[in-house]
């Protein structure tokens, strides 16, 4: 039996908290995504999976405390559609977050 050298342990945070709050206050007319984190997120973009319709926007930059409002329409939105939020952290790590209605 061959002995192997153990891999070095890299100290990293266990998890990265999603820096957004999805505000449904004005649903079903519009929704807001609020940056509740302490970093500026860039390349923020949105995609819909399913039957929903939403206006396309160029990738955005969202500072802490800022919000972006989304107008999404669909028949039976909670059952038929999922929103995918994509963004980059300052260190260029890319993240995706699925939001259910």
Explain this structure to me?
With 101 residues, the protein is mostly beta strands. It has a single domain, classed as Immunoglobulin-like. Helices cover 4% and strands 45% of the residues. The protein contains one helix and nine strands. It has one helix at residues 77-80; strands at residues 20-23, 31-35, 41-50, 53-54, 60-62, 67-70, 72-73, 81-88, 94-100. The strands form three sheets. It has a four-stranded antiparallel β-sheet. A three-stranded antiparallel β-sheet has the order 1-2-6, with no helix packed on it. β1 (20-23) and β2 (31-35) form a beta hairpin. The protein is elongated and about 60 Å long. The model has no long low-confidence stretch (mean pLDDT 92). This is PilZ domain-containing protein.
Task: List key phrases describing it.
101 residues; 9 strands; PilZ domain-containing protein; mainly beta; Immunoglobulin-like; 4% helix; four-stranded antiparallel β-sheet
Q: Which second-level CATH architecture applies?
A: Sandwich
Instruction: Note the run of SSEs as H and E.
Output: EEEEEEEHEE
Q: Main β-sheet: number of strands, strand sense, barrel status?
A: 4 strands, antiparallel
Structural class given helices, strands, pairing? Answer: mainly beta
Radius of gyration, in Å, reads: 18 Å
| Average residue-wise pLDDT | 92
Content of β-strand: 35-45%
């Amino acid at each position: 039996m061959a002995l192997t050298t153990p891999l070095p342990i890299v100290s990293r945070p266990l998890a990265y908290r999603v820096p957004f709050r999805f505000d449904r206050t004005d649903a079903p007319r519009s929704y807001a995504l609020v940056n509740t984190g302490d970093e500026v997120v860039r390349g923020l973009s949105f995609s819909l999976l399913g039957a929903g319709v939403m206006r396309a926007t160029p990738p955005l930059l969202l500072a802490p405390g800022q919000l972006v409002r989304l107008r999404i329409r669909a028949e039976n939105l909670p059952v038929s559609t999922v929103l995918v939020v994509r963004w980059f952290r300052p260190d260029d790590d890319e993240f995706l977050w699925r939001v259910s209605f």
